[in-house]
Amino acid sequence: PFLQIVLYSFLDYNLLNEGQFIGFKNYSKLFSDQVFWMTLLNSFLYILATPVLIIISLTLALSLRDAGRKNSFLRSIYFFPVITPIVIAGIIWRWILSEDYGLMNYILSLVGIDKLRWLSVYPVNLLSVILLTVWRGFGYFMMIFLAGLMIIPRELEESSMLDGAGKFKQVIHIIIPQLKPVITFVFVISSSAAIKIFTEIYILIPGTPMNNKSLVSFLFREAFERFEFGLSSAAGVILFIISLAFAYMNIRLMEKKWEN
Asked: What is the C-alpha separation between 139 and 60, in angstroms, rounded?
């Protein structure tokens, strides 16, 4: 299938014809399309959700590290968004962020802040999608960090306490270095997923202009609304190359950082 998509990217193809070879014209058309560049930029901006996800999920994992009924209950509550179907989650957040009757604007009005157009004005609508992404994802990564924390010997922290190290120093100098592989893994998969974000945008802000959306949204429009399968295939190939290169750079940069 991947090789077939690469082939389609060199064709003028719309499912109704056999496809005419046009070389790199689809790629040339993409690179001259301002909307394509805007959606690509937005896809990179969605990566801002990654550090927020890591900080929140790691903080919760540290606070819920110890066994017990209370922590087990809280783990289940925090994991609940992960198992919530994305369509239901998107509808709920559309109600929360509604510009006329939403809970978020109501809370802002209580402290004297004017209503924000969460779902229709750029870049606020981009922030709304990031909020939904963080809400749905932090519980999943929290469980990954909890699994990583289980392999860290408690003796290291107990020894550091005898030397006068507080909780903050233990986290910085013991826990985080021990979690290097886990943090790298979370960073790579979360940032790669952010580049390919689609469903959250499709559900939460369907009516906004295309230049407010992501590259996958652009790909979807060209393929399934305009039936430009050659052009959408070219966008898909570019997205694949970017995702592959970004994942590789992430791994190399994170490894270099940990070595230092």
From this structure: 9
Which pLDDT band, with edges at 50, 70 and 90, does 92 fall under? very high
Cα dihedral sign for 167, 172, 178, 180? positive
CA dihedral 72, 75, 76, 79 (to 10 degrees): -160
CA pair distance 243, 252, nearest whole angstrom = 14
Predicted TM-score (pTM) of this structure: 0.86
Helices (H), the chain: 2-8, 25-31, 34-45, 49-63, 69-83, 86-96, 103-110, 124-149, 154-162, 167-170, 176-178, 180-195, 199-204, 215-224, 229-259
The C-alpha atoms of residue 105 and residue 214 are separated, in whole angstroms, by 25
From the list 109, 83, 45, 87, the residue with the least C-alpha distance to 203 is: 87
Q: Which amino acid is at 125?
A: N
Report angle CA 184, 190, 194 to the nearest 5 degrees.
140
| CA gap 135, 130 in Å, rounded | 8
d(CA 79, CA 140) in angstroms, rounded, equals: 6
Q: Six-digit token pair at 53?
A: 């996800």
Query: How do residues 166-192 score in pLDDT, each as one tens digit?
Result: 778 778 878 888 898 898 889 888 888
The confidence score (pLDDT) of residue 216 equals: 95
Question: How many other C-beta atoms lie within 10 A of the C-beta of residue 253?
Answer: 12
Secondary structure (3-state) at 163: coil
Asked whether residue 51 carries a pLDDT value surpassing 80, the answer given is yes
